[in-house]
Amino acid sequence: MKNATKNLYALEQLSAGGTCVHRLHPLVKLMAAAVFIVTVISFDRYAPMRLVPYIFYPMILTALSETPHSMLLKRVFIALPFCLFAGVTNVMFDTAAAFTVGGVAVSYGAVSLVTILIRMYLCVMAVLILVSVTPLSEITGEMRRLRVPNIFIITLEMTYRYIGVLLNEAYSMITAYRLRGGNKKGVDIRDMGSFAGQLLIRSLDRAERVYNAMACRGYALQNTLRRSRRLTPGDIIFLAVVLILCATFRLVDVNRLIAAGIFGGV
Amino acid sequence: MHMTDSLLSPAVGAAIAAVSVAAIGYSVAKVKKDDLCEKKVPVMGVMGAFVFAAQMIDVTIPGTGSSGHIGGGILLAAMLGSFPAALSLSAVLIIQCLFFADGGLLALGCNIFNLAVVPCLIVYPLLFKPFVKKGTAQTPGRITAASIIAVVAGLQLGAFGVVVQTHLSGITALPFASFVLLMLPIHFVIGLGEGVVTAAVLCFVYRTRPEIMDSALTGTPIKAGVPLRNTIILFATITLVAGSVLSMFASSYPDGLEWSVERVSGHTEFETENPFIEAVESIHERIAVMPDYDFRDAGEDGSAAGTSAAGVVGVAVTFALAGLSAFVISRVKRKIS
User: Fold this and answer.
1) CA-based angle A56:A61:A65, to the nearest 5?
2) ∠ at Cα B219 (B237, A204), nearest 5°?
3) Is the pLDDT confidence value at B299 over 50?
4) Cβ contact A201–B208 (<8 Å)
5) Residues whose CB is less than 8 angstroms from the CB of residue A90 and which lie 6 or more positions away in sequence, other chains included
6) Which long-range contacts (CB under 8 A, 24 or more apart) does B179-188 make?
């Protein structure tokens, strides 16, 4: 549980950096990530090789933003179980041979498993890079400019802000429970009602106090500050490069071109 | 049970996202009508954070040796009312997507639909509320029955949603029926566990602070303003429109579409006489340098192994170039600093 809090705010610390990627306009970064993901998932399930050129995106952006690649990679594995489940069932059901390597037939299912795993890596990395170079407040600021209802944005911001607080509260409750309960691993089902119920009631009371404090300081739904930032030439160039590369890799088979360059035509 | 980007096609993702956006917009409008709207917003935020914390608490389920945790949808709906709960859960899902790699950016629409819209806006008013009617004294048995039924139904519908979305995206080869048979029983068991835990929490809260649940029951009555039937018709229309428009553009690889066409007509392909679609197709063919290049080109007997080998070299070079560029950038940056 401590880990969850640490993980959450580790990305926030990274997002406070000052590299050229961090300085880009948040909307530009959001659009780049969205375009990247849509292009990646628009390939069908038998085209793993076509996805390979897209690794330039995570590689270059993590290098430019000085984000530790390994730290993000660990989180990629969270998405693994379900993708692996879907991928492995493909291997079982899609058994027709796609091609042979040294006499060993490789099935379409295996090809699609590889595709799913590469897709997973690319999509998860794109999102993680986005949040590790853009503070949530900037993302929500852009959402505000795009006229997303303020009620929803404040809910989102407050949820994010209070996760750490409530996780710590839950953590100390669990520690207390363990100390008094013979170091049990989980909470007993008959204690769970009062356990989570207490946390819930405390959270509701806390929300009441938070609201009172906010109201004292002049909070009103309409009063939120709208900060607008101008697009710089750098922002436009970045977005253009991402768009052009995504489109090029989608339309042109770069691997084949490279192979053609090496072998003099395929 | 989060849907991920890697199992989704853009058309399906965008169509469901359109529905989720409509549902969020509708919920916002409903919450805004509430007199205590300003006060509700911080409560929604903090309760979202509570769901996060509560999901971290492992509960040991006696007799099974396994552990479960709380599911958020029905619990939040019972505490806040359906519309605030839907917004609160959507916020939680966005944070899970961004910071915990649970789900994905394009899959967000699907996740909000499966895990927030379905339990809060559909299951809660239809299955939970009739059991715990306002004004009558609630018994623990009634609350327990309502929680278990609602949580199980919510999870089943959500899991079914995941199956349908994955299947329509055409990324998995698993037959639809087997996929359903795999997912639903697993989530039935999980749902029972989550339902029991939710019931325990709700019974406790009702015993100590009955007014919370009562105010949720009256807070945002679903019948005020727009009846449920209209909402469902609205959602269905948006899905159909968004789905058909988007799949027209995504028709270069219409796996999901092929599947549905096959089911309906018995053929995988059909002649189109629509000039717009023909135009889109011809443009696609002209601009795509290798329109249909992938492993399917390899032929029945795998004769294109040579081509594949050349492809592998190309992949290796691309990979090396990407790694090298990252390495050079970090080196240069370190030198500058």
Assistant:
1) 160
2) 115
3) no
4) yes
5) A45, A108, A109, A112, A113, A116, B172, B173, B174
6) B179/A89, B183/B159, B184/B156, B184/B159, B184/B160, B186/B159, B187/B1, B187/B155, B187/B156, B187/B158, B187/B159, B188/B152, B188/B155, B188/B156
The pLDDT value recorded for residue B235 is 59
Q: Which residues of B touch A41 (CB under 8 A)?
A: 5-6, 8-10, 13, 106
Contact A89 B173 (CB under 8 A): yes
Asked if the Cβ–Cβ distance from A41 to B50 is below 8 Å, we say no
ipTM of this complex: 0.86
* Closest alpha carbon within chain A to B39: A211
A15 with A133: CB under 8 angstroms? yes
Q: Round to whole Å and give the CA distance between A167 and B48.
A: 12
**Residue B76 · residue A190 · CB < 8 Å:** no
By the 8 A CB rule, do B44 and B136 touch?
Answer: no
CB within 8 Å: B171 and A45: yes
Whole-prediction pTM value?
Answer: 0.79
Going along chain B from its start, the domains and CATH numbers come out as 5-249 (1.10.1760.20), 255-287 (no CATH)
pLDDT at B293: 39
Q: So what's the pLDDT on residue A39?
A: 92
Token output for A177: 């429970």
pLDDT band at A254 (very low <50, low <70, confident <90, very high): confident
d(CA B77, CA B79): 5
Question: Crossing angle of helices A150-180/B10-33, nearest 10°?
Answer: 90
* pLDDT recorded at residue B120: 93
Given a cut of 90, whether residue B271 has pLDDT beyond it is: no
Alpha-carbon torsion (A145, A149, A154, A160), positive or negative: negative
Other C-beta atoms lying within 10 Å of the C-beta of residue A84: 15
How distant is the Cα of B166 from the closest Cα of chain A, in angstroms? 9
Q: Which amino acid is at B253?
A: Y
Measured between beta carbons, the chain A residues lying within 8 angstroms of B101 are: 75-76, 78-79, 124, 127-128
The pLDDT of residue A238 is above 60:
yes
pLDDT band at A164, cuts 50/70/90?
confident
Q: Which of B54, B67, B73 is nearest to B154 (CA)?
A: B73
CB proximity list for A103: less than 8 A, separation 6 or greater: none
Sequence ranges of the domains in chain A: 16-135+230-257, 149-223
